[in-house]
Design goal:
alpha+beta; elongated; 161 residues; 7-stranded antiparallel β-sheet; 4 helices; single chain
């Protein structure tokens, strides 16, 4: 930024006012993009920090109940449908065309199709674990059930936070 500012000043000093305006335009566009990207990142992190305040559907004693996500424990079975925020890290038990937006965790720009058929190993990259769901992500389509394997600070997003 400083180098571009200096280039702009040199352009004005040598009579290249049009060049200086173009360089300053690039500087302001770059600053604007940086500002909005940082603002969006802070909003995303803030939303993830409040992840415990959501309600989730859980299958307990054969009955589907809605409980606060903060009451989930490993071993609970969560019920997923489009629009469900994933409240904890979980391994899929069953999935029917379940797609999940993992952009908050992996940066993947498109929803990922999840499957309970193929179990992944622990050394598989986070974005390639098609049988796992992660806290802070969002079910965008399909349905399914998953067993909670980690909550709170033990989740992938919890370890990042």
């Amino acid at each position: 930024m400083l180098l571009l500012g200096a280039s702009s000043a040199i352009s004005v000093a040598t009579g290249g006012v049009a060049d200086a305006l173009v360089i300053l335009g690039v500087v302001f566009i770059n600053a604007g993009i940086g500002f909005f990207t940082e603002q969006q990142s802070e909003r995303t992190i803030g939303a993830l920090l409040q992840g415990g305040a959501i309600d989730t559907k859980v299958l307990r004693d054969g009955v589907v109940r809605t409980i606060p996500a903060s009451e989930l424990v490993p071993g609970d079975v969560i019920v997923l449908e489009p629009g469900s925020q994933i409240p904890a890290d979980a391994r899929l038990l069953e999935a029917d065309q379940l797609t999940v937006d993992e952009s908050s965790l992996t940066g993947e720009s498109f929803p990922v199709l999840k499957s309970s058929i193929e179990a992944c190993h622990g050394d598989t990259a986070l974005g390639d674990r098609i049988d796992m769901l992660y806290r802070g992500t969002l079910a965008t389509g399909g349905s399914g059930q998953a067993v909670v394997v980690a909550t709170g600070g033990s989740t992938e997003i919890g370890m990042i936070q």
